[in-house]
Amino acid sequence: MLARARSWLDDRLGLKTLVELGSHKTVPVHRFSVFYYLGGMTLFFFLVQVCTGVLLMLYYRPSANEAFESVEFIMTVVPFGWLIRSIHSWSANLMVFFAFLHMASVFFMKAYRAPRELTWISGVVVLFLIMGFGFSGYLLPWNQLAFFATKVGTDIAGAVPFIGDWTVRFLRGGDRVSGGTLSRFYGWHVALLPAITTVILLVHLALVQVKGMSVPPACEEESGRRKPMKFFPHFALRDLTGWIFALGVLAALAALFPWELGEKADLFAPAYENIRPEWYFVFMFQTLKLVPGGEIFGLEYEAIPILLFGAAGLVLMLVPLLDRRVARDGKSTGWSLGGVAALLFVIGMTCWGYASLLPLYVVFISVLLLSLFAFFTRGKSEDR
Ligand code: HEM
């Protein structure tokens, strides 16, 4: 019976071809192989976001009069609503964090080299999109902090020359942050961004399948000596172990540190103190805070760092096309040093923004844990 059902499905879907393809997929083994799990971990958090987001949509109401109350209802009345909301918020942050880790690791492993330029570019686009998820989702509970942070965040867009005013009105759906902005952000958060992200993410994952995993230039000799690991079942089961562990961590974080709701937004209250965006925007926010008021050739001083951040985003996206040396001989010390400088800037500004060394400790502990994990899973250097 089962065999007949399988053959029926196989005739229609070509399952055998898929299984055949999967059985040939392998993952290179070398001392940095542990970094191959970071993309999968980011994917796990993305899937958690989709599942918990759909559940939250069942009760959330996107209007200035009801948004805060509906979130309060989710947290106090809906069975396990508090848990789902907390998991959604924690997982959002962990997804951005792991996307950053994944990007840093593929950057330093030079995985953007030909023929993986498009894998990198699609990855950067997904990163920007998930930052868009964070920005739009922050406003949805309609609390004081979110309201004023969105006001300041969208104000910043106004300093961009020529298109600033238009961008602010486009983001806010009017001149001020209002219920209209909330509906607009909701539309972005639950319809447009998920649709666009899903498509680009599928392209990213398809490119990874087509091109296979790259080997960092420094590990080519080692990887040549060692037998690659079969993706099914060995790598996939290790991925799954990581996902189950991550689910446990998420559940523990959500239960022990439930996400707060704060006070309902009051549009006429004086500006909230300690306005701060999500942690992954703090380095830009802090840089802008240091810029004095004034103009040069009709350009506000504030516009200069904004334009520089825009240019940096473009350079990040085009790294595979700009780093010519790595294509020739696998060496790109200049770009690696540039990457370290950029990381130090981001971490330094984030610490300054929070007036705390916590961001530095988090990065330090993550690097330490990943190094320990790489060390203990390095295996024996077996010959092919
Ligand atoms: C939601 C976000 C993302 C997801 C779910 C995701 C997922 C994945 C997965 C599953 C892999 C294969 C395993 C691995 O190498 O870790 C991968 C590979 C890759 N990703 Fe991503 N990724 C994301 C974002 C990014 C970003 C932001 C970048 C860089 C800017 C990036 C660049 C790459 C590259 C270059 C590879 C190929 C690695 C190699 O061949 O060694 N990805 N991604």
Structure description:
The protein is globular, with a radius of gyration of 23 Å. It contains 16 helices and four strands. Helix content is 70%, strand content 2%. Strands 1-2 form a two-stranded antiparallel ribbon. The protein has a two-stranded antiparallel ribbon with strand order 3-4. A hairpin with a 2-residue loop joins strand 3 and strand 4. The longest helix is centred in the middle third of the chain and has 33 residues. It has 384 residues and is mainly α. Helix 4 packs across helix 5, helix 6 packs antiparallel against helix 9 and helix 7 runs antiparallel to helix 8. The model has no long low-confidence stretch (mean pLDDT 94). The two termini are 42 Å apart. It binds protoporphyrin IX containing FE. Protoporphyrin IX containing FE binds next to helix 3, helix 5, helix 6 and helix 9. The site of protoporphyrin IX containing FE has 27 residues, from helix 3, helix 5, helix 6 and helix 9.
Write the layout of secondary structure elements.
Layout (H helix, E strand, L loop, with lengths): L1 H12 L1 H10 L1 E2 L9 H21 L9 H10 L4 H28 L8 H23 L4 H14 L6 H9 L6 H33 L8 H6 L3 E2 H26 L25 H8 L5 E2 L2 E2 L2 H20 L1 H6 L3 H22 L3 H19 L8
Antiparallel strand pairs: 1-2, 3-4
Bound molecules: protoporphyrin IX containing FE.
The site of protoporphyrin IX containing FE has 27 residues, from helix 3, helix 5, helix 6 and helix 9.
Query: What general outline do the C-alpha atoms trace?
Result: globular
Structural class label:
mainly alpha
Radius of gyration: 23 Å
Strand order of the largest sheet: 1-2
- Between the first and last Cα atoms, what is the distance in angstroms? 42 Å
Q: Beta-strand level of the residues, as a percent range?
A: under 5%
Q: List the ligand species.
A: protoporphyrin IX containing FE
Compressed to H and E, one letter per element, the order equals HHEHHHHHHHHEHHEEHHHH
Continuous helix count: 16
Largest sheet: 2 strands, antiparallel
* Percent in helix: 55-70%
If you average the pLDDT, what whole number results?
94
Oligomer: single chain
Would you identify the regions where 5 or more consecutive residues have pLDDT less than 50? Answer: none
Work out the number of β strands.
Answer: 4
